[in-house]
Specification:
about 475 residues; alpha+beta; Heat Shock Protein 90; 3 domains; 7-stranded mixed sheet
């Protein structure tokens, strides 16, 4: 839920839903108030018509008896508690005439006043009902003398409440449908409006995954500056790495001559009989060379961030390195087998991949008896690169020791003991590790996993380039 709460799309939809709910709530309340006000006005107009009808029909005869001379139009007047009522009261407030619908009840507030028409008011009615009452004072001749009467007409408020509730239900249904449509519209709007950001994320994943070197495509004006800045950052990073590698090479070249001179001085000291001083000087020169070689390997390493879009041809790189290995000591005497299918590629800088594989092949060259094989295998979403030889293999516990800087399997072998350590450093920049173990044929097997894909299977192997033949009983080198 925490991840989804940080989603811009979810935030936009939540804000849209909240805004829609608030807007529809205010609209619903306002419409209900407006409807009730207009309904009250309409009811008051109806009561005014009824009151006018009652006043026109009300009269007092010569004997002073009040009466209604015409049949009033609302039939509810004749139905007990029918919902419509009228009443005529004298100056004391006592009813002198009333509709049949009132039955034994009266409309309260019948005392005469100024005679001016009043606004409709709510009052208690028969059976605990609430009445909407409009009343007016009128004067009639009674034996040559004018007398005041209060005329009242009323309707049951329940009718008004029923209309209001019915309107509220219909309005709630309509607003719910409208809210659903607005939410769908907000969802579409968020999807269309945020589509450039989704495209930007896909482009970033492509850069991170190594399938594209830069962010490409058409982006809106709001996103284009960000895309430009990111591409500029990638260009800047690549430029910095290139300059760093160049400076590292210049540094190594600049130190080469002083180290050569120091080595010559060590030889002269040795010739002069100063063996201890010569040995100390040679050790320091060796340490300096090892340190420079290690730092150069680190400087040459691109690593995962700068390897984006650099898919190395694994089979082609292996073929190039094998040709180089064959020109090195013992290289022509060994059978080198490239079992990597054509088209296999890995998301790793070509120089870094060559640094790793070159050190592993050189290590196999030193220890193999007759054969070295390079192959790839599926490993999750990537591929495993395996370099196997038919040498004596590793002793128990040797793997961890050999991966340390300056460690060698045997002190009488060539090399500085930095090769496998450099390989581990380069692979660490790609979140990968080097593992050493015993192969199926008993020799050493070096293995590392990187993102990539394996190409189509290769045709049946051709005859090996060259195999070494050794006389019986020849001594085998030990690792």
């Amino acid at each position: 839920m925490a991840i989804r709460a940080r989603s811009l799309r979810v935030r936009v939809l939540l804000l849209a839903a909240l805004s829609i709910a608030m807007a529809l709530g205010v609209a619903g309340f306002s419409l209900a108030v407006i409807f009730e006000r207009h309904l009250a006005q309409r009811l008051e107009q109806e009561l005014d018509i009824k009151l006018f009808e009652l006043a026109r029909s009300f009269s007092v005869d010569d004997r002073g008896t009040p009466g209604v001379t015409a049949v009033l139009s609302d039939p509810r007047y004749e139905t007990p508690y029918g919902g419509a009522y009228w009443q005529v009261s004298d100056t004391t407030g006592s009813p002198v005439l009333r509709s049949r619908s009132l039955w034994d009840d009266v409309i309260p507030g019948g005392t005469t006043g100024t005679g001016a028409a009043e606004a409709a008011v709510e009052r208690d009615g028969p059976g605990g009902a609430t009445l909407y009452v409009l009343e007016r004072d009128v004067a009639r001749e009674d034996g040559g003398e004018k007398r005041s009467y209060r005329l009242q007409v009323a309707v049951d408020h329940a009718e008004l409440e029923g209309l209001r509730q019915s309107f509220s239900v219909d309005m709630a249904v309509a607003l719910s449908v409208l809210g659903a449509l607005l939410l769908v519209g907000a969802w579409l709007q968020a999807g269309i409006g945020l589509r450039p950001l989704r495209a930007l994320r896909e482009r970033l994943n492509a850069v991170h995954g190594g399938s594209a070197p830069r962010l490409v495509g058409a982006f809106p004006d709001e996103v284009a500056p960000l895309v430009s800045d990111l591409n500029g950052l990638l260009d800047r990073q690549e430029d910095l790495v290139t300059k760093a590698r160049k400076r590292a090479g210049d540094l190594a070249h600049g130190l080469k001559t002083p180290l050569t001179i120091m080595s010559a001085e060590a030889r002269r000291l040795d010739e002069a009989g100063m063996h201890a001083a010569a040995e100390t000087l040679r050790e320091q020169v060796s340490l300096m060379r090892a340190h420079i070689e290690r730092e150069l390997a680190r400087a040459r390493t691109h690593g995962t961030p700068t390897a984006a879009g650099l898919h190395t041809d694994v089979a082609g790189t292996v073929e190039r390195l094998l040709r180089l290995m064959q020109r090195m000591p013992r290289g022509e005497d060994l059978s080198w087998r490239n079992a990597v299918p054509a088209g296999s590629r890995c998301a790793m800088d070509a120089d870094d991949f060559g640094e790793v594989l070159g050190n592993l092949l050189d290590n196999a060259r030193k220890w193999a008896i007759s054969r070295v094989e390079i192959r790839v295998e599926p490993a999750g979403a990537g591929l495993a690169v395996i370099v196997a030889d038919d040498g004596p293999g590793l002793s128990d516990g040797a793997q961890e020791r050999l991966l340390k800087r300056g460690e060698r399997a045997r002190e009488d072998t060539e090399g500085s003991g930095l090769g496998l350590s450099i390989v581990s450093d380069v692979l660490a920049a790609y979140d990968s590790v080097l593992t050493l173990g015993r192969g199926a044929t008993g020799g050493c097997e070096a293995r590392f996993v990187v993102p990539g894909r394996i190409g189509a299977p290769s045709p049946p192997d051709e005859a090996p380039r060259r195999r070494i033949t050794r006389p019986a009983g020849a001594e085998q080198p030990g690792r």
